[in-house]
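pasting for the record
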Amino acid sequence: MGNSEYTAVLISIILIIIISGCSGEDTAEITFEDMDAKEGVIMSSTTIKNVTINWLGHSSFMIKGEGKIIYIDPYVLPDKVDYEDQADIILITHEHYDHCSPEAIRKVRKSDSTTLIPQNCTLEFRGDARRISEGDMLTDDLAIKGIGIEVVPAYNINKSYHPEGFGVGYIIEVDGVRIYYSGDTDLIPQMSGLSVDVALLPIGGTYTMDESEAAEAAVAISPDVVIPMHYNYLDSTPADADLFKKLVQDKNPDIEVIILSSSVQ
């Protein structure tokens, strides 16, 4: 190859790199509608319509929408939570240390945060802390800061870790997106009556459903999107998210399974 040919090839390569960098593909917001275009890319968060769901790790989530920030069972958190990422609403499902951590709650709470806590939780909280029970409907005029919240059952059937009445799950409606956070639970009959767009389900076994049981739950609920949680953080909750995805899509290929990577390492 002569010098002129070498120069032409080099210029072509540089132009390709510049054009690719300007396309914006790497920085485009990922939404459910274009998720197939990003297949194979594992993110720590996903955006569905205008709602961002960020898996912090284990069972900890931060959800952003309608100008509000909602934390569910904050336990896995970065060392420092910036003020703009602090909570408007904190939802606690039950009293176990990896779901109700006073230290973590203090990190995300600000002076006007609202915290929802099950009635039987023995810990006391300062500020706007409200006791809730299974069956509570905090919607319409009772909505918390404009966010509709339903309190739903969560319990074990064949284990003793979470007896019925010990903890709860939540359905929250943010900007028209209904998100079911199951809490620590087995596959229970009440799941089949839920109407939700997104389901956050535990797959780690031991204390909750395993991959197979969670796949059955996903099919019973039939959301548009299901996201696995509560696995591979504690030594006692190993699971294979890819197996869960296969089991779900073998049973119902219309359910999109989004596997997130923990944003806190």
